[in-house]
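#data-curation
PF: Archiving a pair of folding outputs for the training set. Convention for this channel: one message per protein, sequence first, structure tokens after, nothing in between. First:
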Amino acid sequence: MLVGLIIAGYVTGADRGVMYIRLKYPESIEVIKQAIADLQSAGLTGTGILGSNFNFEFKIIEARGAYICGEETALLASIEGQRPEVRVRPPYPVNYGLFGKPTVVNNVETLANLHFIVKNGGEAFAKIGTQRSSGTKLVSLDSAFRRPGIYEVDMGTPLATVVEELGGGFKRP
């Protein structure tokens, strides 16, 4: 996801990427901070990345969050310190977004797929999943399953496979 954010920044000419992570996920915040530190150590963030004119930094917003923040304009309002409410469009965030600046909002899955697509090409990505729904999907299985966790599956994977093979079935009938 972080590499995808760097790629998106490069393509759009942005010099920073903002990640909004709810405070109720402290482990996620720590994992992301460590991953950012690893990228910094590898010279993939900061000024003049890999000897280029491209500069890129990450900013983590640790927020209370709310369900409504899944909608992009409510998310931007929350980051700005306002009440997270959906804004009337137009203007769209790509024209007038965060603090009045053009802003591209993407979800984690989109950003996570960018590295694979750039490395292997769009045709290779399109071959994953089904003809109507290509790519992969992240599936979150909670503590009701014998093996809870976040799994990445090809689009079109049967629900029975997700529940029985990945999740190990339900803990209780």
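PF: Second:
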Amino acid sequence: MKKKKAKKNKLKIVLTLSSMTLICICVIYFLDTNKKKNLNSTIEITDTFDIVSNSTVESTQNETANDITENTTIQTTSSEAGTDPIQDKPVYNASSLPTSKLLDVTQINQLPELPTGCEITSLTQVLHFLDYDIDKTDLVDNYLDYRDEIFPGCFMEYFVGSPYDPDACGCFAPALMKTANKYLKSQKSPYAAYDLSYSSINTLFSHVANGEPVIVWTSLDYTNRDIEYQTVQITATESFDWPVNEHCVVLMGYDLDKNTVTFADPLYGIINRSIDDFKYFYEMYYYQAIVIR
């Protein structure tokens, strides 16, 4: 009886040990499987993140490639101008442009005080549209950087000559933008000027449709498409082709059905031009434009 009982006890011990061993093996297998599963999940999440990131980069690159000049110009000048307080204002895209738009910009004549001051007078027109009471000559005397020197950066950084001088040259968008922001800052204005140079015609129209007149560079003489360029020697090895008959106006309206744009012109008053002519001269005068928003 004792031997039989002893054998029975040994059998119980063996079975118990076997059961415990089997349980340990199962637990180890479960933990190992779960660890691998978690590791795979981590890898899958990381891969997904990479895919999303690459997709975002590719999308951004495509958008930038489609409009690289416009985006680069606006971002650069925005950082110079400071934070745009109304950056979230909607801007129409080309596919949703209203057929026509006309803003109530009052024309100001540059003569007789500023025979070559079309740029500063155009800026004055836009400032008056925004309800700022500033005289064109006050802008020249207190805010415009104008000089007689010719060196790298002229035309872009400052007005070459004097707007009071009938034989002066003029300036392009960056110099006028700097003047506008200097004045707006002095008034603690919520507005800022932005360089829209090299923007498409539809982009300019979108700002007008959004209630924002655009200062643009064009020709003084729309009857002559043969633009003459006067070579200005800046350094011994650097020169600039200044376009003769350079003129600056305010784009205050457009009509796609009539194929016309409306200018507040400092010399000719409120006038209409064909969109085709405007496109041509906008290109010939280096696609210069600024907006205050």
